[in-house]
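Weekly structure sync, notes
Attendees: PL (lead), two postdocs, one rotation student
Agenda item 3: pending single-chain targets
PL asked that the sequence for the first pending target be pasted directly into the notes so everyone works from the same version. It is reproduced below exactly as submitted, 281 residues in total.
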Amino acid sequence: MTAAADPTRDPVVRIDALTAEYRTRRGVVRALDEVSLDVRPGELLAIVGESGSGKSTLSQAIGRLLPRACRLVSGTVRVLERDVAALDDAGIRRLRREQLGFIPQDPIASLDPTMRIGRQLHLAIAPLGRPTDRATLVSLLESVRIADPERALGLFPHEVSGGMAQRIAIAMAMAREPRILVADEPTGSLDAQVREEILDLIVRLTRESGASLIWVSHDLGAVRRWCERVCVMHRGRIVEEGPVSEVLTDPSHPYTRTLLAALPSAPAPAADGPDEGTETT
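Predicted structure, written out during the meeting:
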């Protein structure tokens, strides 16, 4: 079943006046400056901006995954009505395990290089009390369109391509049946064709599950094709926010207009996205 964002329901993520700073050798750098944002159930939301705009810091704050050098100065992050800063260690681990899914920027680096793919899938879903038999693991890999899942289970991370590694990471994330999926530049290291296939896969699985997607990106062309709402970040602030059809067609902020001016003029693919591919290596 395909789900759509429901504006009448309470947000699954509510960020209120969040301010965060990094300690650097040159002093304190403000990464987030009183950022407020709601994410609705079933919403496909993009957070865009140049490197250093604060978009990755914002996505990390949702799962309380900020690096040690980053400090939350003020504000709150509530996920499914829970204040993530107030949760104890067991509580935040439970929230990540049961309600949040994360798709990494570098999928190969996120996998254990000493462990076969099948074992890593088993360890990812075993704590959830769900079946971990071989047929279940094969089905997981089939759901992300890996062509030879039986073979893939026996491979080590260094034996798979970047595209297959990202499909495996998506399978691990979606196996948890998360309410919220956070994808931080999930296709940055992939070539154009594989990038579109991966984005199509992420969006399709998110819609089928009814989860909310928070996608961090600098690619406005892809955001235009895949997302419903967009937040534009600049120097730690959200400078523009709204439906993709409005913000990326008739932007009101000069920074958004600058980003759009840098887009290539080549025609975009059809709105439904490309045909789905399968990954074989």
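Discussion points:
- The beta strands are 13-24, 27-39, 44-48, 70-79, 82-83, 100-103, 180-184, 212-217, 229-234, 237-243.
- The first strand starts at residue 13 and ends at 24.
Action: rotation student to compare against the earlier draft before next sync.
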